[in-house]
Amino acid sequence: xxxxxxxxxxxxxxxxxxxxxxxxxxxxxxxxxxxxxxxxxxxxxxxxxxxxxxxxxxxxxxxxxxxxxxxxxxxxxxxxxxxxxxxxxxxxxxxxxxxxxxxxxxxxxxxxxxxxxxxxxxxxxxxxxxxxxxxxxxxxxxxxxxxxxxxxxxxxxxxxxxxxxxxxxxxxxxxxxxxxxxxxxxxxxxxxxxxxxxxxxxxxxxxxxxxxxxxxxxxxxxxxxxxxxxxxxxxxxxxxxxxxxxxxxxxxxxxxxxxxxxxxxxxxxxxxxxxxxxxxxxxxxxxxxxxxxxxxxxxxxxxxxxxxxxxxxxxxxxxxxxxxxxxxxxxxxxxxxxxxxxxxxxxxxxxxxxxxxxxxxxxxxxxxxxxxxxxxxxxxxxxxxxxxxxxxxxxxxxxx
Amino acid sequence: xxxxxxxxxxxxxxxxxxxxxxxxxxxxxxxxxxxxxxxxxxxxxxxxxxxxxxxxxxxxxxxxxxxxxxxxxxxxxxxxxxxxxxxxxxxxxxxxxxxxxxxxxxxxxxxxxxxxxxxxxxxxxxxxxxxxxxxxxxxxxxxxxxxxxxxxxxxxxxxxxxxxxxxxxxxxxxxxxxxxxxxxxxxxxxxxxxxxxxxxxxxxxxxxxxxxxxxxxxxxxxxxxxxxxxxxxxxxxxxxxxxxxxxxxxxxxxxxxxxxxxxxxxxxxxxxxxxxxxxxxxxxxxxxxxxxxxxxxxxxxxxxxxxxxxxxxxxxxxxxxxxxxxxxxxxxxxxxxxxxxxxxxxxxxxxxxxxxxxxxxxxxxxxxxxxxxxxxx
Lengths: 400, 377
Fold this sequence. Notes:
The structure holds two protein chains of two kinds.
Chain A: E1 5-10, H1 20-34, E2 42-45, E3 49-53, H2 57-66, E4 73-82, H3 86-98, E5 106-113, H4 122-136, E6 141-142, E7 149-155, E8 160-163, E9 167-171, E10 180-184, H5 190-200, E11 204-211, H6 218-232, E12 238-244, H7 246-255, H8 258-280, E13 284-286, H9 299-306, E14 313-314, H10 322-332, H11 335-338, H12 345-348, H13 360-367, H14 373-381, E15 384-388
Parallel strand pairs in A: 5-6, 5-7, 10-11, 10-13, 11-12, 13-14
Antiparallel strand pairs in A: 1-3, 1-4, 2-3, 4-8, 4-9, 7-8, 12-15
Chain B: E1 2-3, H1 14-26, H2 36-56, E2 63-66, H3 69-83, E3 90-94, H4 99-110, E4 114-118, H5 128-134, E5 139-143, H6 157-167, E6 171-175, E7 194-198, E8 209-213, H7 239-253, H8 256-275, E9 280-282, E10 292-297, H9 302-311, E11 314-315, H10 321-324, H11 331-335, H12 340-343, E12 346-350, H13 357-375
């Protein structure tokens, strides 16, 4: 099917008052970002909808596949155009219906006739097109109220436009409309989902990851890079800060009693994250914590960990069940990467029975014997910053 | 030597060979290994896969590397029929398919599927009317090649898929071994569900090829084992061959338009030349891929002509490399009902994008000479 353009309907932002322009321009930038590699696409933004056009049909097809991932879009429809010749209109209508799964669906034709000189009036055109479509697709049933397929025909002065498909968008708000936060990205199932949920509300993300070579392999780091890359597919660059964590973890092992070492590890991670957050000018920290899931995610643990900072910490998964989180991970495509079996820095020094109800005073007391600040500053300074989407390395280009 | 048998195989492109050697030297790890070396090799493999997916306009996880055209075709026929057998057990195959499809389909018939054959007209093009009549709601698979290897006839894939999609939920397999690199082949321009490509027909290496599926289409494996290639094609993936395939495909796609124009002018020239002989009948139809010219010399044996031309350092073939060693007449020509006078004297010239006008001129001289000697006038 050859499509002329795509009609995009805005999501929640249609209800915003004076900020509207800003929201639309964010959305326009996000869409543009997702098709940097498709040079011919043009955007025409209007007050309540947006049109995307391209001279190259394959670009439109590529766009149809990418749009469902962009936040701030309620739905979109590919639009076909044809001349004002009735035969042409009939043929285009049939082609559109062929491109849809129409078996046993309910159906109607809606006509909007802006060109008042068009020889058939609205009702005539409706019935002529509908009867022809029904003849070709005998299993269709006509239903005027809430049909499954609504074939819309607009007769304008220059041409006739037609669409039938309404493809749901991702909803949410355009990225960048709600500032920036730092995501603690472990490599597990939860943290990418937490990141996704903030992205969906228009928050830009940086991600932070703790890497302990040689205990954790290059591959576990690459796995996190893959996850960061996958998050960047939702419409904006994601920077990943990789913190060298080996020294800190080893001194925790040496200094802190085993059953609270996990709590201290988390507290130091949070401290580091907060320093990085301040440096990049983000306003919040996002984690994938879900209440009671593991020892570090009990209310007592969360309190002890949270005590190191007053920065807002967002925990979008806090009340969600694991299975629901997995469903979202599958949907956004991070699940398969998350379950790859590499050791990460949380699993290598796991104590056999960590405290599920650590006391803040005690943890602070144990930590007071060692000055971690220097190690922390060093780790922050020596961090590796990677940017996603990854520019394809040219390493192999001579071979391909 | 003038090599005009490029549909049998082509000469390896030096850059492809270079890629093959370099990958063997630098990235020879098993791509499934979890060490960094293996991982790097896997990255290279994935890059190759992505490059191919971009050319064919599908997603990279739907590109499966195989040992070549025959394996890909077998995988498509058995794998698709098996995977979607709940849609029905009726299969439609064109009469002019490559043996790797025809024989697979015959086996499928033995396994309980009902195989029906699509006939062709005198030009070697499938009869769409017959497809219309044969297609049923329980048809599960339709297989038609894009360009026939013996005549060069381009099959009406677009019209075919229109008919198939309207009347059934059948999958469409297209063997693009002869068309890729000559005319556009991808899942957006052609509404098919699977495509076979072979490397050595496009200046790649022998023993490599691929089957690509349209997004969301699934398939059953025919080889079982370690689960490589997403479980669809077990056996350690040959990264050097896969990367060479990607390279050959990229090179084949470069300036496709201008290469096609050049081939077309060579082909027009040759056809005009051949038509000047009263005892020669051009078999290729007008709607054909530019690199294949099939013709027949009246009351003559193909083998005799090949030998005579060969003595002058000109290499062509009889109808196809597969059938040329067999004494029986080609199933494609039979399906086209070529008259007895002509069916034995069929020759196929198959050009490559590296063929030149000079070679064509030389060929014409040699051919004229040979005709004088053989026909004695």
